[in-house]
Amino acid sequence: MIYIAICDDNEKTVEILKKKVMEFLKKSNEFADITVYTQSENLQYDIQEGKYYDLILSDIEMPNIDGMNLAAYVKRYLPEVLIIFITSHLKYAVDAFELSIFRYIPKNSIGSRLPQALKDAINMIKIQTDEFYAIETPTRVEKIPYHKILYIQREGKNSVITLLDNSVTKVRKSLTQVFKEFRSDDFVYVDRGDIVNLAHIMGIKDGIVELKNGIRLPASQAKLEQIKTKLSDFWSEQI
User: What proportions of the chain, in percent to the nearest 5, are helix, strand and coil?
Assistant: First the structure.
């Protein structure tokens, strides 16, 4: 599922954009959850409270929080989000570029330029999704870049994911299920209750897998040779 937000203080513009996005999705056989905002501060608040979006279509000139400030704020919480600015004011194009905005579309060119921008954005999101582990529940959406995952441990009926910054997040799934859901070969079991990211293994000594941040995890004898082989293959691929 792709999550899209549309933000413009003009209700008519919001409805036009939503209609065009839905038409594109239907024509392209894509599925998305679309949320509309007519007040930028509401979008800001939702993201602060944990709301996730893959793509945001936003006006620039809006009361209270303009599009530029909104984009800068959103990027702090969702650094991978794609933002398309749709506005009548060309003078903002350079500033939008500096904010790493995905696309900039003048309002008088929505019909001709929005479909291609949406196509490119969705293709980019699909590429990014292959490099993320997604947690989706009725009340929560979280996408974790693989490169930020240090290791995963079993904790009862949960799997606990520890990240490079030592923060943790839980998902109510078995370790086996989480491992199957990874679309990456860069993870390996070190024993029945621990999975580690090969990219963050610093070494193996006396049956102990040493990770970044000083983390040390014991490896089972049965898994040790497999870990060494996978680690050797991984390191050779990085050369």
Answer: 45, 30, 25
